[in-house]
């Protein structure tokens, strides 16, 4: 999305080492923002290096409160501030409800709900007037079309992404009421052929819900009025828009980026 200028903005993207997070980080950088890649994987170092010398990497386990505090501190000191936070890190473990394992529930809850909640907490603390960045800004949470539809095999994932939607709306209200100057929105990505998306197609086929991974993908496309899967740049463009002044009067919103699948 080259028409939007984010020059001077300082962004932190969680889960930025691969997939949607990497694409979002690259799009923000292409729009002029300075980006800090945050990821539990050190592969994020290579992504940050590929963006250029002004960008950085911080190792972040999004489920750890102290780790979040240090990642925010590192971001502010390394790239000179923080006014954009993309809470993208997430996991999906496919299972029928009759077979779901408690450990799988806990992992998705911890990364998708606890991780996003801590991100909002520390992002608001950093960007509000008395914070170490203190210039206001925007938080963009990554939910999923799974929060708006009933797709088999992903019940718990869907529940966690529904929670991200609710967190977004309450955070936007609190930020506004308390004068933090931080807009909080989320996007609902459709199925994208990243490693996670491909894994989901294989998993639901293995569960017997579709004849093959290809049939699963075809089923998603059939449910999508736009007639195709999403692409990484579709999601990245939405993030760039919500990060920009073009969205300056948008807060507490969930933006579907799903080709109409969830309507």
Report on the architecture of this protein.
The protein has helices spanning 19-30, 44-51, 65-79, 102-127, 155-177, 195-206, 213-222, 232-243, and strands at 10-14, 34-39, 56-59, 84-87, 137-142, 182-189, 254-257. It is α/β, with parallel strands linked by helices and 263 residues long. The chain has two domains: 10-190 and 231-257, 3-Layer(aba) Sandwich (Rossmann fold), CATH 3.40.50.720; 191-229, no CATH class. A seven-stranded parallel β-sheet has the order 3-2-1-4-5-6-7, with helices on both faces. Helix 5 (155-177) links the parallel strand 5 (137-142) and strand 6. It is globular and about 55 Å long. The model has no long low-confidence stretch (mean pLDDT 96).
Report the portion of residues in β strands.
5-15%
Radius of gyration: 18 Å
Briefly note the CATH topology name of the largest domain.
Rossmann fold
Work out the helicity level: 40-55%
CATH class category name of the largest domain: Alpha Beta
Look at the structure and give the mean pLDDT. Answer: 96
Shape: globular
| Main β sheet profile | 7 strands, parallel
The SSE string, one letter per element, is: EHEHEHEHEHEHHHE
N-C termini distance: 24 Å
Number of strands: 7
**How many discrete domains?**
2
- Which structural class should the secondary elements be placed in? alpha/beta
Total helical segments: 8
Architecture per CATH nomenclature, i.e. the level-2 architecture of the largest domain: 3-Layer(aba) Sandwich
